[in-house]
């Protein structure tokens, strides 16, 4: 009986195998000999057709696949994006294919703004954009020298329903004789498309022009060509801008609310899904997400059952109070991908929680947003509260601190947004000296670190700690001489001898800005360090801050010819500077104040309990500030200094404080610093000039106007040597001479 079962089993298996071989043979023959009219011929190389692809059971639930470039199979998202019909031509443009580098390499990175055409109105926001360019060091009025061109036609608002919309822009742009199909042009845009779909079409063919665009999607963003900028309001300041609201690094860094949002709820149309679902997460305690339907003319026609309740809850909370007392701020998409909430959250030190799938975040090419924001997913809204609650307090504090740095470095004004855009493009053009991620994402940021100075981070005073380095242990003294050498007892010669005796002095440079000829070599005292005399060509005040190649040390000791300092004072000041290489360290201190009666900034030389400036008549700072003073500051401010022969020290303090966001450091000195009263016939008699003080008052306000705010910071700190004036033996003190009168 068992043998019979075995025979039946073998017979059944053999029958099945024969049937499979027969059916397979029929299919193979059919594949080799397709019927007449079939589209499928033999595969190249005689390869047989692979195993058939059966219909996908999930196909009805998946988004429809667009055909590939050759009409078959699945394609990558990038291929779909490039093959699909674009919102504008030139969607495949990159710097290598749609930008002419020749003019940039010939004349440097210069930007030309088209002159405004008669009868063309420009909105205030776009006027601020153009003013920022024209006031920058990149601007040129000569199109023949330009590397980049910017339209004077207002392209910021391309919503056809907006009163700022410019009609017939297509023909106006095409009529520009330098347009050249948009090549080497940059177009700024904040709003594009209109109700109901809000596409990203700017309404005219931009050709090969680059876009600096807000609310741009990753699908339409052209990497390494376009620049994503933030959406900013018409009230956004042109220059300066308010500081961030993080005043104290409180530990733990938690606030009253964990997560907040207050804004419109769209009942229908694009952008409505996410905001309509926020009520699921709102708990009315530490997660407060408020929406209102009460906007637009016909909101009541579309109101739903939740509108009245949402509107009532919406009115109970003050938005500013919520913003300043929240740890995280939800930034959901609106009609467009970008939102004003983004910049508001950054300024308030409220960590943005992004809910805008597909948004190319502002300046994403250089900014690491993972250090300052939480990138959420609209489809996982319900997981947001548990996700942010799991973030450690140390991480929260780091995120909040980074929001403040990014806000003040790149977003607090229209000028900074525009300059960041231009700097990104410049880095693309000159890749061999482009700034790296550390520069862009660490203080002081990419706008103040000029790559033309050096490509090595160790040459800047801000990265010693990151690199584990220290500045060089010597300094170069630069003495500014403006009076003729008529006596061997003049203060400049005594100063030269005292400085040369310093154990840290590498060399002394005398900048001869006097009208008289250079003294003979034997007139200068013999010293143990080299003395280099440079005759100033222009004989102007700003020449003392030129980046001379002769300066080979990191530190510069800047001195006026009438300064009275001992060797001990020089040594101590340099020792202090080595611990604060990014700041000005020195002796003569001054201060600023706000004059309420005159409604302007004032300058005072009175000895008080605080100061905000250390004059460069006796100060040490990093030599990079010579380069920054020369190449970053506008010619208008330097020309003002040169014409007045005054205020160059104030301008240097403005610059360093603006970069570091820190005050200078005053150190102890043996004697009260005095400006020597020179003869009235001498150029150095400026200290005795009654107009000298008034000029410095005027300079303060002119400088503050250009910076857009007052960068000077008051300080009450003075650094003294250890054991300074302690009741111990003088022999135990290293800088004992400082105490002697």
From TrEMBL:
Q: What GO biological process terms does the UniProt entry carry, in alphabetical order?
A: heparan sulfate proteoglycan biosynthetic process; ossification
Give the pathway.
Answer: Protein modification; protein glycosylation
Tell me which residues make up the Glycosyl transferase domain. Answer: 475-724
The top EC class is transferase
A cellular component term, taken from the record's GO annotations: endoplasmic reticulum membrane
The record places domain Exostosin GT47 at 106-390
What is a GO molecular function of this protein?
A: N-acetylglucosaminyl-proteoglycan 4-beta-glucuronosyltransferase activity
Chain spans, region Disordered: 32-83
Q: Which residues form the signal peptide?
A: none
Q: Which UniProt keywords apply?
A: Disulfide bond, Endoplasmic reticulum, Glycoprotein, Glycosyltransferase, Manganese, Membrane, Metal-binding, Signal-anchor, Transferase, Transmembrane, Transmembrane helix
Q: How does the record classify its membrane topology?
A: Single-pass type II membrane protein
- Reported EC number(s) for this entry are 2.4.1.225
Q: What is its main location?
A: endoplasmic reticulum
The subcellular localization recorded is: Endoplasmic reticulum membrane
Q: Which InterPro entries match?
A: Exostosin, Exostosin_GT47, GT64_dom, Nucleotide-diphossugar_trans
Matching PANTHER family = ACETYLGLUCOSAMINYLTRANSFERASE, EXOSTOSIN GLYCOSYLTRANSFERASE 1
Q: What family does the Swiss-Prot or TrEMBL record give for this protein?
A: Belongs to the glycosyltransferase 47 family.
- What is the name of the protein in this document? N-acetylglucosaminyl-proteoglycan 4-beta-glucuronosyltransferase
Protein's organism: Lepidothrix coronata
Encoded by which gene?
A: EXT1
